[in-house]
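Next comes a single protein record:
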Amino acid sequence: MENIPILSMIVFAPFVGALVIALFIRNHNKVRIWSLCFVLFELLLCLIAFFSYERLHPEQFQLVDKGENWISFSKYTLSYHLGVDGISLPLLLLNGILGVVAVMASWKIEFKVPKYFALLLILQGAVMGVFTSLDLILFFIFWELELIPMYFLISQWGSGRKEYSAMKFLIFTFLGSAFMFMGILAVALSVGSFNIDGLSELVKNKDVVFIIPQTIIFALLFIGFAVKLPVWPIHTWLPDAHTDAPTAASVMLAGVLLKMGGYGILRLCVSLFPEVMFDGAGQILVIAGTINVIYGALITLRQTDLKRLIAFSSISHMGLVLIGIASLNSNSSHIGLTGASMQMFTHGTITGLMFLVVGYIYEKSHTRHIPDLGGLASRMPIISIVFVISGLASLGLPGTSGFVSELLVFVGTFPIWQWYTGIAAFGIVITAGYILWMIERTLFREPRERFSDITDASPFEMIPMFLLLFVIIAVGIYPSVISDLFKEGSIQIIQNATSVGLAK
């Protein structure tokens, strides 16, 4: 495996697939089949990378692909530099899994089919680039590239106010990216390098003179990532985007695009500026996270659209990521950081499954309005069972992956932020309320006469549902397969902080 550029293949295979489909394939059935072949190949590559990672003697970054002097000017060098560690590798696998789910969920798309699937593949490739890039400019290029396919997927294949929602998504994320880019330039111009792999060592050097205070650089980077996560009050684009996006776009948006925000905070904000975290940013993160958890849970109780309800629940769950990250300077910080990372992975699979099931419900019933639903359990038992399990996983039922991540976050964070952890834990109670209430109103109650001819999931539709269900249950029963990797990545972050004498 040493001589095989596995990460380059993972990043660029979807782009090759998109190019082939856009230029050479016109038959709609062939487009679907070729798209499925490309995402299955992508998943295979991700699995190869996952099992090739050396866990016994982990390096900070492995499976490295590097081309020196990609672009050189003055004393600065931009390099083609890819690598993964314990934080990014599971997210790479998550993207591979959801890519397969997104293609299969889009099987009945009839409008501009080649363009649709090409954009879906470009989206997957761009996200892969974000999770593997070890050069700041390369990271930013892939970060921005992701915006283009998502904008068109929402604006052309969405529903409702699709143009408005797509433009709102674009404006919010572009503005966030502008702040992030200023932070990236401030780091690079101060340190003299764009190489993420070596930045942490350079930043820790007390002789480095930053062109602006570290606190401001941290804030600039954090704003860019906070928009993507998203963090209240810059979250309003998310419910609109989810509500009007096609099913596959919602799966990818909730499953991996939100995780780019959490990943960026861990990779750049926390790793490069642990001192800022301990000087007050940690408290800001835990406050923001607690607000996210409670606000998202409470506002969810008022929603009558299934997709909008799940979107606000995502805001609540992403608050747990911030809370886990805020545990950095405690004795149990590795537990909190592992929990935050696990929350990103488990939320991706659970919420991806919920959006997939809601897509099927809407396709068959032609409504997502909760008061208009009811009695679906007797009409579509398979979909209903999967929906119930995904809902229970979302509220953290033991035996599912959601329980593991939430437990790690609370255990890791409580020693340093007791009050905030307690308040956030109350959000879990609210979560149980709105999830169970949604399930009761949607699946049970008196069956509607107009749903008498509604059909259950076809064998083909069951495949992506059961794929995500398998991951949720498997990680819930044996979490170490994922949590051990996240723990290794978290320990690297903590060691960086310890080396400058900041961690307790």
Summary: Residues 333-365 form the longest helix (33 residues). The first strand starts at residue 62 and ends at 73.
